[in-house]
Amino acid sequence: MRALLLETPGNPPKLAYRDVPEPTLGEHDVLLRVLACGLCHHDLLAMTGVLRRGIPSHAILGHEVCGEVVKSGPAVTRVAAGQRVVPLLTNACGECARCQAGLEHRCLVGKGIGHGAPGGYAQYVAVRETALVPIPDSMPAEQACLLACPIGVALQGAQDAAGLKVGEVAVVTGASGGLGVHGIQIARALGARTIAVTSSEGKMAALLELGVDDVAPVGELDFSELVLAMTGEEGANVVLDTVGSPLFASSVRSLAQYGRLVLLGEVAGGVAQVNLAELLFRDAVIRGSTGAQRRHVEQAARMVAAGQVRPVVHATLPLRDILRGVGWMQERALFGRVVLLPG
C-alpha cells in the first residue's frame, strides 16, 4: 500500500510517500480502507519535531480517520465488511479497567493512532474492533473524519471537563482553527453565550455566520479586557483554550468568579506564566482535557446529524500534497480543518 512516512522531523519535515507492507491483523483487528483523514495541529507538532515522545521512527501520522472495513480478524464480531467507521483516537483494548469504565481514550495498553501506532496517512490502517464507532453511510467521509477529533475532543472539554451549563458565558480561543471552530459551535449547542477569540480579523465575519454571539480579536488591547467589557466586567464562566501558552495568561484574566479554564491545546510548545493571585481571588479551576471517549464520538455524530454542529472543512487535498496544508496552518490561513484524501 502507499503511505506517507515521517522520515525526519523539521521545518520543513522530510516526508516520503512510498510503498509499505499492508498492516497485519490480530484476531480482534480490522483493516480499514482510509476514505479521509484530517490534518491536526498534533500532526504539525510531530512533523516539526516539537512533539517527539512516543513517536517511532518513520511514523505514519494521522488520527482523524474515516474508513471502510475491508478485512477482519477471525474474532471480530462488532463490524462487518463494507461498513463505514470512525476510529477513536486510541487503539483501545476494550478490556482494561479504564476501557471498562468508559475511559477508552486513556486505555492502559492501547497506543495512540497516528502517534505510537500507524495512522491514517495511508491507504489502509489496522484498528482494533473495540476502538471503532460505526457511522451512517449518508455522512460524507471528509466530515465524518472530524467526529473524534476535533469535534469529540471539544465536546469532552466543554461538556465534561468544563461542565458548561445553559446560560453561561463561554470564551473559545483560537476560534477559527480546526479545534476552536468546532468548540465554539459545541458551546453554543450546549446553551452558552459564546465569545470567539481570533487573531485574524478577516475571519470574524465567518465566525459570526456560525452563530457566535461576540468576537474578541487578539490585538493591541488584551482580549481579556474585551471579554470583561462584553460581560459587564463579570468575565467568562468557561474558557476553552485551544492555543495554550501564548494566550494562557489572558485566558485566566478572562475568567469570572468560580470560572473554569480548560486547556485543549498547546500550539507553541512553550511555557505559560500566570499571576497566581489571578487564580486565588477568582476561586478558579484549571484543568487539561485531551482525547474523546466513545460516547463523545457517538454524541458528536448525533449533533452533526441534527445540524447542531457543522464540520468545517477549509479544503480537501491529496495526501501527497500535505505540505500545502501544513503551510496554510503555519500561516494561520485556515478556517476549520484541512482534510487529506489518500487518492
Supply the key terms.
11 helices, 2 domains, 26% strand, 25% helix, globular, alpha/beta, Quinone Oxidoreductase, Chain A, domain 1, 343 residues
Characterization of this structure:
The chain has 343 residues and is α/β, with parallel strands linked by helices. It folds into two domains: 2-146 and 311-341, Medium-chain alcohol dehydrogenases, catalytic domain (Quinone Oxidoreductase, Chain A, domain 1, Alpha-Beta Complex); 150-288, Medium-chain alcohol dehydrogenases, catalytic domain (Quinone Oxidoreductase, Chain A, domain 1, Alpha-Beta Complex), CATH 3.90.180. It has eleven helices and 15 strands. It has helices spanning 41-48, 97-100, 141-144, 147-161, 180-189, 204-209, 223-230, 248-253, 276-280, 294-305, 322-330, and strands spanning 2-8, 14-19, 29-39, 64-72, 84-87, 124-128, 132-134, 169-172, 193-198, 214-217, 236-241, 255-263, 285-288, 313-318, 337-341. The strands form three sheets. Strands 3, 4, 5, 6, 7, 14 and 15 form a seven-stranded mixed sheet that branches. Strands 10-9-8-11-12-13 form a six-stranded parallel sheet, sandwiched between helices. A hairpin with a 5-residue loop joins strand 1 (2-8) and strand 2. Helix 4 crosses helix 5 (180-189) and helix 4 (147-161) crosses helix 10 (294-305). The longest helix is centred in the middle third of the chain and has 15 residues, at 147-161. 52% of the residues are buried. The model has no long low-confidence stretch (mean pLDDT 96).
